[in-house]
């Protein structure tokens, strides 16, 4: 039985291992470093959710709220536990946390060749902004 629980600083190593096993790109020297993640968890404990199966972390999601919109980040499910609806449960949990914070719009950035994720979010009611490009400016390459 899948259990969704808030992730704590003590879960950091499991979180990183999950991202690695899921093949999810992340930024260990920047915003995903232990120090940064623990700081973010302290500020918004309800935004870090884990899916646990018999005590093992098998999925995760991070929500963020910028004051105008909510965002979904770092969603991952272990390969051997996919296609069982775990990502959908995590997304619903993140959406609930963001709505409680006042978010009426929730966004997600997805690589255009990530078909599983594109299918997943469209199935969850998200619309693709066909004419939008993602631009970013970084103070450090690893941020
Ligand atoms: C994307 C990911 C999180 C989906 O996790 P999941 O728990 O398997 O997803 P769900 O079981 O909730 O899937 C729900 C729906 O999404 C779509 N979907 C999920 N995986 C899919 C795949 N490999 N191919 C096509 N559609 C897929 C389907 O519509 C699926 O419903 P169905 O199983 O009834 O057909 C998982 O594949 C993953 O961790 N991928 C690597 C990391 C990643 O890309 N994260 C997202 C970054 S934006």
Features:
single chain; 143 residues; alpha+beta; Aminopeptidase; 5 strands; binds coenzyme A
If you had to describe this structure to a student in words, what would you say it looks like?
With 143 residues, the protein is an alpha+beta fold. The chain has one domain (2-123): Gcn5-related N-acetyltransferase (GNAT) (Aminopeptidase), CATH 3.40.630. It has four helices and five strands, in the order E-H-H-E-E-E-H-E-H. A hairpin with a 2-residue loop joins strand 2 (48-53) and strand 3 (56-65). The radius of gyration is 15 Å and the shape is globular. It starts with a strand and ends in a 20-residue tail after the last helix. Bound molecules: coenzyme A (COA). Coenzyme A binds next to strand 4, helix 3 and helix 4.
The CATH class designation is Alpha Beta
**Total of DSSP H or I helical runs spanning 4+ residues:** 4
Q: What percent strand?
A: 15-25%
Mean pLDDT: 97
Overall helicity: 25-40%
Low-confidence stretches: none
Radius of gyration: 15 Å
Largest sheet: 5 strands, mixed
Number of domains: 1
Task: Report the strand count.
Answer: 5
Gross morphology is globular
The chain-level structural class is alpha+beta
Can I get a quick summary?
The protein has 143 residues and is α+β, with helices and mostly antiparallel strands. The chain has helices at residues 12-22, 34-43, 86-100, 115-123, and strands at residues 2-6, 48-53, 56-65, 70-77, 106-108. The mean pLDDT is 97.
């Amino acid at each position: 039985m899948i259990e969704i629980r808030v992730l704590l600083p003590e879960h950091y190593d499991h979180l990183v291992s999950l991202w690695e096993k899921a093949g999810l790109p992340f930024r260990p020297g920047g915003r995903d470093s232990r120090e940064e993640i623990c700081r973010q968890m302290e500020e918004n404990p309800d935004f870090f959710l884990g899916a646990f199966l018999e005590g093992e972390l098998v999925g995760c999601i991070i929500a963020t709220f910028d004051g105008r919109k909510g965002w979904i980040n770092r969603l991952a499910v272990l390969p051997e536990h996919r296609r069982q609806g775990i990502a959908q449960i995590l997304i619903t949990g993140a959406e609930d946390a963001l709505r409680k914070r006042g978010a009426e719009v929730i966004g997600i950035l997805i690589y255009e060749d990530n078909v599983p994720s594109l299918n997943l979010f469209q199935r969850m009611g998200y619309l693709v902004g066909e004419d939008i490009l993602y631009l970013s400016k970084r103070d450090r390459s690893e941020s």
